[in-house]
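Agenda item 2: nicotinamide-adenine-dinucleotide complex prediction
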Amino acid sequence: MELQGSSALITGGASGLGAATARALSAEGVRVTVFDRNEEGAKAVAEEIGGNFVAGDVTEPEDCQRAVDQAAEGAPLRVTVNCAGTGWVGRVINRDGSPHDLGAFDFIQKLNVIGTFNVMTRAASAMARTDPGEDGERGVIVNTASVAAFDGQIGQLAYSASKGAVVGMTLPAARDLSVVGIRVLAIAPGLFDTPLLAMLPQEQRDALGQSVLFPKKLGDPAQYGRLVVDISRNSYLNGEVIRLDGGIRMPPK
Ligand SMILES: NC(=O)c1ccc[n+]([C@@H]2O[C@H](COP(=O)([O-])OP(=O)(O)OC[C@H]3O[C@@H](n4cnc5c(N)ncnc54)[C@H](O)[C@@H]3O)[C@@H](O)[C@H]2O)c1
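Presented output:
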């Protein structure tokens, strides 16, 4: 797919994988809209890449519509990338035997699943109204899962459930949108060096890097951004979940 002169919407674009994706797409001549609840961060990334930003929450449908509308202004919306999301640690039963907190489980599903749903559906609706390019293609939607969808560790009940849902939406969404020429894929990252992991002490981050098959280090967010560009360009990729993880298979803990 030709990217030059098109527009893209990146949720979670103020930080980590989303910010790296915003930079990578912008370098390909794409007009990027950064959508994030962190207004300051979204503005900073948008200014850096000469794009624009929308401050808002992916769990709020009106905010998502506002972001899609802005992204679709001026140039056809061809690429939508869902990177807004977060993790949670909690076991089925806590150390004292009490059950996993429902509020926490609900919060993670709302952010990682409903947030992805809100943006994907609204973006697809706008993308479907654009004039198709060569071969009838209108664009691509890339959602962010995690290796935790497959190798959920102890304490990842809520997070793995949410990322499993992102994986599960991939094929039906690709099938639904095939009639309008929109592809849907998901990337399942392994361990990436983003602010999400920066919370851990250096020693633990080094140990995590050593646990990767090869290369023995944390992933660089730029490698995620590059994969989004490759996915966008390669029109024959569709309905697939791509692990980007240096071959890691997460152990129980
Ligand atoms: N970093 C990793 O190793 C890793 C591995 C697997 C999966 N992932 C997934 O990748 C995605 C991005 O992770 P990251 O490491 O870049 O995290 P990050 O914390 O660096 O960035 C996440 C961004 O999402 C934004 N955000 C959070 N909630 C939001 C909301 N309700 N509305 C709008 N924006 C919101 C945050 O403000 C932040 O800018 C997440 O879904 C995460 O689960 C990350």
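Discussion summary: The mean pLDDT is 97.
Owner for follow-up: CH.
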